[in-house]
Amino acid sequence: MKALVFACLMLPVAAIAADLEASLTIRNHQFSPAELKVPAGKKIKLIVQNQDPTPEEFESHELNREKVIAGNGKATIYIGPLQPGKYPFFGEFNEKTARGVVIAE
In which order are the strands placed within the sheet that holds 20-27? Predict the structure, then answer.
């Protein structure tokens, strides 16, 4: 019985450990890669590193996410699980150049 209780308590830890990780970089007010492919149906830990000296805001209406990333800073944004499809995002402070899309397959 103790083993069953222990296994049930560890399930959330196992679920967190199963998160997939993806990275985006902001440089010269552009996201790289501009197309980020992720598996559908999985929770993704998205790490966004801003290499510009000025802040940028990662924003996506489709992903329902908005986060300011300080200049030369880093932020973690959790997305998903996503249905297969395309989810555009942009940098609100440099919307003309900072654009991208998450593609869930």
Answer: 30-32, 20-27, 44-50, 74-79
